[in-house]
Amino acid sequence: MTPVDDLRSAADAVVARVGRDDIERAAEYLDLQAGRLRVPVLDDVGIRDVLRSSRRIAVVGASTNPGRPSNDVFRGLLAAGYDAVPVNPGETEVAGVPCFPTLGAAVAATGPFDIVDVFRRREACPEHAREAVATGARCLWLQLGLVSREAGRIAHDGGLTVVMDRCTLIELNRIRRGG
Asked: What pLDDT shows up at residue 22?
């Protein structure tokens, strides 16, 4: 067996053990951190500007479960004065705010959003990017831990700014502290 065969065998073993999707997720995350994602994402200054210039935020995946990060962020955005609207087909309201099953339904009932803040699994992000483009949002924001090259490309090509692997509430608090 050659060294190349050994490497192929080891790579096949890793893929079998952790799964191709986990490897792709890790590769996209590493590409984002290294600036190799090939999708423009906002830096700290851009994030500050988009949060300061935005008033309406759709929170896709918002939950009534107080143990979910989306619940905490949703409540924090409301407390910060944003017009935050929950989007989740499994909820009827979050923190007293009527919830909509889709982004399109939320826009039809309440008007367009500046930011579409996504708390969904990575594989759902491209569809949410398409919805954000179709409904005229200004920014697609993928929450902490979420990186999707495909969603970023869809949003960017549709004229939206893109944020990935950042939490809106953490960033808002950083800006408030002068960071």
From this structure: 78
The helix/strand/coil state of 65 is coil
Where does 35-167 have alpha helices with state H? Answer: 44-53, 69-79, 103-110, 125-134, 149-157
Measured CA to CA, the distance from residue 141 to residue 154 in angstroms comes to 13
Q: Which two tokens stand for residue 73?
A: 């962020």
The phi, psi pair for 36, rounded to 5°, reads -110, 15
Is residue 39 a part of any domain in this protein?
Answer: no
Look at residue 59 and give its three-state secondary structure. strand
The pTM score is: 0.88
- 18 and 68, same domain (yes or no): no
- What is the share, in percent, of the chain residues with pLDDT greater than 70? 90
Whether residue 105 sits in one domain with residue 17? no
Above 90 in pLDDT, residue 150? yes
Chain length of the chain: 179
C-beta neighbour count of 74 within 10 angstroms: 29
